Structure formats: structure tokens, C-alpha cells
Amino acid sequence: MNKVFNYKNFYEILAIVAGFIALVIISIYIYKEPIINPIDLTIRDAMYKFRGEKYGFWYFVFRLITEFGFFYFVVLIAIIVGISVRFDRRFWLLCIATLATYVANELVKIIFLRERPFAELQWMHESSTSFPSGHSMVSVVFYGIIMYYIYDSLYFNAKQKKIWIITISILILLIGLSRLVLGVHYFLDVLGGYAYGVVIAAAIILFYKVKLRFPNIGIKKKQA
After folding, report:
1. Is the dihedral of CA 181, 201, 106, 34 positive or negative?
2. What is the Cα–Cα distance from 182 to 159, expressed in whole angstroms?
3. Is 125 tagged catalytic?
4. What Å distances lie between residue 170 and 97, 178, 210, CA to CA?
5. Share above pLDDT 90 across residues of the chain, in percent, rounded to a whole number
6. CA-CA distance, 71 to 117, in Å (whole number)?
7. Sign of the torsion angle spanned by Cα atoms 68, 69, 73, 74
8. With 0-12 CB in 10 A as exposed, 13-18 as middle and 19+ as buried, what is 72?
9. pLDDT tens-digit profile of 10-59?
10. Which of 12, 135, 175, 192 is catalytic?
């Protein structure tokens, strides 16, 4: 127990607590206002004004960005990660965590059954319910775990790690934004997806650090 609750795991524990509080608040709010609410309406209208006409510049930009959250693209990147780490325990943990997130997302959707924004205003077809956003939820878990692997690796220097972490963080935010611009989710769907994703990702990273982490990864050997 002391191995889990120590200062080295402070940020993971903080993320789990903060994410859990956020998802509870958002979930209760959505449950009471399942269709529309002032927050979602305001941001939805702002996105519609921002994006302009369909098949314009922003359509192709955000249609491309949203692909990074689809299952087939996640599988492709997972394979690249697997090759990079020689399909060791990090690869399998990433796969299990991502698949569990997909399942969790579907279960939560069944509980809330929130309708998506009006079909005529959507720029792509989605058949499932709206809350929470699966793209947002999966992107936080999948890319968040990869981001931690990079941070924990000895194969990148400090500058390279910073570039990768900033790039992946921006990608996660843009994936959520793409769901709003394409009109397939409300703002609280995306925010809720992030909250659920943070809890899962932080819990997986904490588990990895405590139980599965290789002794020599991320820790430089002391000189004799």
C-alpha cells in the first residue's frame, strides 16, 4: 500500500481524484439535463459559426484530425508502438487499457442514452449515443499512456520528450475539438469523455509504475 501512496505517484493519484470528481459532476448534470443545456447550446452555436460551410477548409482539417480517434487508426499506431517496444508488456497494457476504455464508453452511453446534436447539422454520420464522447475518452487513455511511455523512456532526450508531450497533448485537445466542429457531440460530451479518460489513464499508469515497470526504463544507472 505504501508503494502506491507515495510522493512519486502523487500526480497519478491527484489525476484520479480530480478526474473522478469532474466526471461525477458532469454525469449528474447530464443526467438532469439529458437533451440540451445552456453550456452545450452556447458552445454548439459558436462552433457552427466558426466552421462555416460544409466541405470548406475546416471540414477537411477537422475531418482528418478526428480520424486519429477512430479504432482503425488507433490499431495502426498501437502496432507502431508495439514494434518500437518489441511487443513487450507496455504494448499489451496499452492494448488492454484501450479496449477496456472502448467497452467502458459503450456501457456509460447505455446508461445515459443522450441524443446527439441534430443530424442535419452533423458533418459526418454517427450511430451511437452522445455521452460521453468515445473519441475524447479513448484519445486521453491511448495517447496519454503513450505520452507517459515517452516521458519514462531513456531513448529520448529532454528536448525530444518535451516536443512529443506537447504535440500529443495538442492532438488530444484537437480530437475533442473536432467532435464539436463536426457537430457530432456537445461540449459536455467531450468534457465528460476527457474526465472518464483521465481516471482510466491515470489508474493504468499508476498500475504500470507500481507493478509492471521495468527496473531500467526511465532510471539511469548510477555510475560505479
Report:
1. negative
2. 34
3. no
4. 21, 12, 28
5. 68
6. 22
7. positive
8. exposed
9. 889 999 999 999 999 999 988 887 667 888 999 999 999 898 888 889 99
10. 135
Asked whether the predicted pLDDT for residue 167 surpasses 60, the reply is yes
Q: Tens digit of pLDDT for each residue in 142-162? A: 999 999 999 998 889 999 999
Q: What is the residue whose three cell numbers read 500529443?
A: 168
User: At which residue does the C-alpha cell 467531450 appear?
Assistant: 190
Say if residues 139 and 172 touch (Cβ distance below 8 Å). Answer: yes
pTM: 0.90
Q: How far apart are CA 184 and CA 112, in angstroms?
A: 16
Task: Answer for the pair 206, 189: CB distance below 8 angstroms, yes or no.
Answer: no
Local structure of 105: helix, strand or coil:
helix
CB of 78 within 8 A of CB of 93? Answer: no
Find the radius of gyration of the CA atoms of the chain.
Answer: 19
- DSSP states of 43-74: HHHHHHHHH-STTSHHHHHHHHHHHTTSHHHH
Of the candidates 24, 13, 44, the one whose C-alpha atom is nearest the C-alpha of residue 192 is: 24
Catalytic one of 185, 198, 200, 201: 185
d(CA 68, CA 75): 10
* Contact status, residue 138 vs residue 69, Cβ threshold 8 Å: yes
Active site residue 185: yes
